[in-house]
UniProtKB/TrEMBL annotation:
UniProt gene name: hfsG
Domain annotation Glycosyltransferase 2-like: ranges: 19-151
Entry keyword set: Glycosyltransferase, Transferase
Protein name in the entry: Glycosyl transferase
Origin: domain of life: Bacteria
Assigned protein family: Belongs to the glycosyltransferase 2 family.
Pfam families referenced in this protein's UniProt entry, alphabetically: Glycos_transf_2
A GO term for molecular function: glycosyltransferase activity
Entry keyword Lipid metabolism: no
């Protein structure tokens, strides 16, 4: 394993108040880095971006150039091997210098110009150990193949502050997540998760039992909506991660609608035979979106039913 470090000229020995941590794999984080850098010149913030084994020299060069152009403190860490989402976040936390860290995904943008200032204020006033700011999705673009991910995000992720507060840890994700670094030292992300999904849900459920979680209205915009085929593939291959999440929190499982549906499907003989029909319904764009979403959720539950059996 080879580690490459690129550091901006403004990266000095002054200890920051907040470390912004951005893991990525084959994503270009340039737009996010430039947007954040506009605030780092006036606030005690550092930005660390971590390439989890992309292996693309052209992307590395592009990200290095952006880091070198930053006016504030910025650092690129490039790993030659892919270690997974949990390991990437833990590695970023190990290299952070501030007492608070803010996780953002590379395909996000702040929803407002005072994004970092809002977190700096909350860190001092919210009486919290963990702060989740919430999500928005980008305006509808001319790409209908990503509409189902947008629709799913709107009903599952882009929730109001009141909805998130009522649910507690259930709607916390590991992007746009501000955390005291000592919390992560005691409760790191579980490196046993591989591939996509559920490591952030498991972490939030675990941490909320020991530390104070607060929801805030400081959203980031999710730009990287996935195609229909990518959504289908991720849901079909993340069953093992879901099983790991459920095994870690059996007390939470009975409260989750996905768990209850998956268990019911698991009791139906030959339930997997309905998957071709569900997949077809998800992909037919002329169907009402609510029916496509229902088919997508049943597709996921069908695969999870096998993982839970």
């Amino acid at each position: 394993m080879t580690i490459l470090n690129i550091i901006s000229t403004s990266y000095n020995a002054t200890r920051p108040t907040l470390s912004v941590l951005i893991p990525f794999f084959k994503d270009d984080a340039s737009a996010l880095l430039r947007a954040l850098d506009q605030e780092t010149t006036t606030h005690p913030v550092e930005i660390l971006i971590y390439d989890d084994g992309t292996g693309d020299a052209e992307l590395t060069d592009a990200m290095s150039a952006v880091v070198n152009d930053c006016q504030g403190a910025a650092r690129l860490i490039t790993n030659s091997e892919n270690q997974g989402r949990s390991a990437a976040r833990n590695a970023l936390c190990d290299n952070a210098r501030a007492d608070w860290v803010l996780f953002l995904d590379a395909d996000m943008l702040p929803a407002k110009s005072e994004f970092l200032q809002s977190y700096l204020t909350l860190m001092n006033t919210a009486d919290a150990d963990v702060i989740f700011g919430g999500f928005q999705v980008e305006p509808k673009a001319e790409n209908p193949d990503r509409d189902i991910h947008r629709a799913l995000s709107e009903v599952s992720d882009c929730l109001s502050l009141a909805q998130r507060q009522a649910a507690g840890p259930q709607y916390v994700a590991s992007s746009n997540l501000c955390v005291r670094r000592n919390v992560l030292a005691q409760q790191p992300f579980d490196g046993g998760f591989s591939g996509w999904g559920w490591e952030d849900s498991e972490w939030a459920a675990r941490v909320s039992k020991h530390f104070k979680l607060v929801h805030a209205d400081n959203p980031a915009i999710h730009l990287g909506l996935e195609t229909t085929d990518t959504m289908l593939r991720r849901f079909a291959t993340s069953g093992a991660n879901y099983r790991r999440f459920i095994d870690a929190h059996p007390d939470l499982a009975p409260q989750l609608s996905l768990y209850k549906i998956s268990k019911k499907l698991g009791r139906l003989p030959g339930q997997s035979l309905m998957r071709p029909v569900l997949k077809l319904c998800v992909k037919i764009r002329v169907l009402p979106m609510r029916l496509r979403l229902l088919a997508l959720k049943l597709w996921r539950a069908s695969h999870y039913a096998e993982a839970l059996s």
